[in-house]
Design brief:
Layout (H helix, E strand, L loop, with lengths): L3 E4 L4 E4 L7 E6 L10 H19 L3 E6 L6 H10 L3 H19 L14 H13 L3 E4 L2 E4 L36 E6 L14 E3 L1 H13 L3 E7 L3 H16 L4 E7 L2 E3 L2 E2 L10 H8 L1 H9 L7 E2 L2 H24 L9 H12 L4 H19 L5 H18 L6 H13 L6 H16 L3 H13 L2 E6 L2 E6 L2
Helix pairs in contact: 1-8, 2-3, 3-8, 4-5, 4-6, 5-6, 7-8, 8-9, 9-11, 9-12, 9-13, 10-11, 10-12, 11-12, 14-15
Length: 471
C-alpha cells in the first residue's frame, strides 16, 4: 500500500509521489524563538519528526528543512522588555529549543536555517515581486498586493472579498487593500536593522519561509508542513509570494497538524494556558510527552489536561514493563521482526500517518507478548514480536529505550523517598528466588511484603520476576 497524505491544498487524501523518485524535499515552519516551546509546539515538532522518520524508513532520501524565526515583532518586544539585544534573546531560546528537541527524541533536520542568515535572499525575492508589480513600497515599507495574485485564498478556501484584515498586525491605511501584507518593514528606533533598496529595515514574517524554502529545496518541493493555525495567513501568503514571483507551483503536498487545546481554547502563550515542554517532561519524562501527542490522529484536535498526560505516562510504563519481561524471556534469541506485525504497522502509517492505529498495533503486540509469557512461552515468537516493537519504535520514537533504563528512570523519583536502589531490589529478588529454591517460602513472602510496603511490586512469570513501582 503506498503512502497517502491528506493534502490541505486539494482537501483530499492523495497518494504521495515525490517529484524526484527516491528523494523528498520537506519544509516545516519552525518556532519563533522569543520564549521556550510548549506542548502545542511539541505536537507539530513530533508529528513532522515521525513523518521524517517514516519517509526514511520507507527508503527515501529526505532533505528536511525546518527554520528558526529569529527576527519578529514578539522577539523585539520581549528583548526590549528584558533590556537585552534581540540576538541575545534568540540565542538563549535556540539553545533551549535544542534541549527540548533532545528531550522529545526528535531527530535533527537536515538544515535549520535562521531568518537572519538569509536576508539577501528575502530582499531578492521582494525585488522580483516589485518587478512583476506584485509589491509596492510606502515610506520604507514594502507590501504584497494580494489583488495581483488571482489564486489568493486557494489554500485556506477563502474568498478575498470575505477576508478580514489584521490577522497578525494592525490595519495600515497606507495599504492599497486591507489584506495586503508586509514583505519589508522600515526600522523603528531600537530594532534590529539591515540595509535594503527601500532603506534600513527588516523582513516581514511571511517572506522568510518563501525565501528559505526556495534556497534550500528549490521550487516546487514535495511537502510543506505546519500547524493548522498557519494555514491562514502565513501559508496562504507564502504561496502568493512564491508563485507570484516564480510563476510555477510552490509546494506539492500541504500537511497540517491539529491544535492542542485547553478547554475550548487553543493552547498559546498569549492566552497563558500552556505548559512548556520542559515542565511537562519534568512531570512525566520527554518520551511520555511524545507518546501523549502521538496517541491522537495528527489532524484531529488534541485536548490537554495534566491527567491525560499522566495517563500517557502510565500507558508507556506498561509497554516497558512488558518489554522488560520479553528481554528476560528471549535473551540471546536473534530472530527477524514478526512480518505480520510490521505489515499492519506500515498499513496504518501509509493511511495518512494513522498513528492512533499504529500505536494500537504496538499495544496489541504487547498484549500478545504478555499472553505468551503467562503460559508456556515460545521464546522465538516472543523475540520476533519484541523485534517488531523495535521497528515501530524506530519510526514513532516511542518504545526504543532499553526497558531497564526507562523503568529505572521512572522508578528513581519514587525510590529516592526510600532506602532502596534498583541494585538493592535486584539483590532482594535474587535472594527471594534462592529462598524459594530451598523451599523457604516464608522468607520469600517476607521479601515480597517488605518491598510492597515500600511501593515496589514483584510480578512472577515462568520466565522470571520483574518489579515495578506501584502507581
Amino acid at each position: 500500500m503506498p503512502l497517502k497524505l491528506h493534502n490541505t491544498l486539494s482537501g483530499r487524501l492523495e497518494e504521495f509521489v515525490p517529484l524526484v523518485p527516491g528523494k523528498v524535499g520537506m519544509y516545516v515552519c519552525g518556532v519563533t524563538v522569543y520564549d521556550r516551546s510548549h506542548i502545542g509546539h511539541a505536537r507539530a515538532l513530533v508529528t513532522f519528526d515521525v513523518l521524517y522518520r517514516y519517509l526514511r524508513y520507507s527508503g527515501y532520501d529526505v532533505n528536511f528543512v525546518r527554520n528558526f524565526t529569529d527576527v519578529d515583532d514578539k522577539i523585539i518586544a520581549r528583548a526590549q522588555q528584558a533590556g537585552i539585544p534581540a540576538h541575545e534573546l534568540t540565542e538563549t531560546n535556540i539553545r533551549a529549543f535544542a534541549e527540548d528537541m533532545h528531550v522529545l527524541g526528535c531527530a535533527r533536520p537536515t538544515l535549520e536555517p535562521r531568518a537572519t542568515e538569509n536576508i539577501p535572499e528575502m530582499i531578492a525575492l521582494i525585488r522580483e515581486l516589485e518587478t512583476k508589480e506584485m509589491a509596492y513600497a510606502v515610506d520604507g515599507d514594502v507590501y504584497f498586493a494580494v489583488e495581483r495574485f488571482p489564486g489568493y485564498g486557494k489554500l485556506s478556501k477563502r474568498k478575498l472579498e470575505d477576508m478580514e484584515a489584521g490577522a497578525r498586525i494592525e490595519v495600515d491605511e497606507r495599504k492599497r487593500n486591507p489584506m495586503d501584507f508586509a514583505l519589508w518593514k522600515a526600522t523603528k528606533p531600537g530594532e534590529p536593522t539591515w540595509d535594503s533598496p527601500w532603506g534600513p529595515g527588516r523582513p516581514g514574517w511571511h517572506i522568510e519561509c518563501s525565501a528559505m524554502s526556495a534556497k534550500y529545496l528549490g521550487e516546487p518541493f514535495d511537502i510543506h508542513g505546519g500547524g493548522t493555525d498557519l494555514i491562514f495567513p502565513h501559508h496562504e501568503n507564502e504561496i502568493a509570494q512564491s508563485e507570484g514571483a516564480h510563476g510555477g507551483a510552490f509546494a506539492r503536498y500541504w500537511v497540517h497538524n491539529g491544535m492542542v487545546s485547553v478547554g475550548q481554547e487553543k493552547m498559546s502563550k498569549s492566552l497563558g494556558n500552556f505548559m512548556t515542554v520542559k515542565d511537562a517532561a519534568t512531570r512525566v519524562g520527554g518520551e511520555a510527552l511524545r507518546f501523549f501527542v502521538l496517541r491522537t490522529h495528527y489532524r484531529s484536535p488534541l485536548e490537554f489536561t495534566p491527567d491525560r498526560l499522566d495517563d500517557a505516562a502510565q500507558g508507556l510504563g506498561k509497554i516497558y514493563e512488558t518489554l522488560a519481561r520479553a528481554e528476560v524471556a528471549a535473551a540471546g534469541q536473534a530472530v527477524p521482526p514478526d512480518a505480520e506485525v510490521c505489515r499492519q504497522f506500515a498499513e496504518a502509517m501509509d493511511d495518512d500517518l494513522n498513528l492512533a492505529r499504529a500505536i494500537g498495533v504496538m499495544f496489541e503486540t504487547v498484549r500478545a507478548i504478555n499472553r505468551e509469557l503467562d503460559g508456556a512461552p515460545d521464546v522465538r515468537q516472543v523475540a520476533a514480536w519484541r523485534a517488531a516493537i523495535g521497528v515501530m519504535a524506530g519510526v514513532i520514537g516511542v518504545g526504543g529505550t532499553r526497558p531497564t533504563d526507562y523503568l529505572n528512570r521512572e522508578r528513581r523519583e519514587h525510590l529516592e523517598a526510600t532506602d532502596l536502589s534498583p541494585a538493592e531490589i535486584e539483590r532482594l529478588i535474587h535472594e527471594r528466588a534462592e529462598a524459594r529454591k530451598q523451599r523457604d517460602f516464608k522468607r520469600g513472602d517476607e521479601i515480597r511484603a517488605a518491598l510492597k510496603a515500600k511501593g515496589v511490586v514483584l510480578e512472577d512469570s515462568p520466565t522470571g520476576t520483574v518489579w515495578k513501582v506501584e502507581r
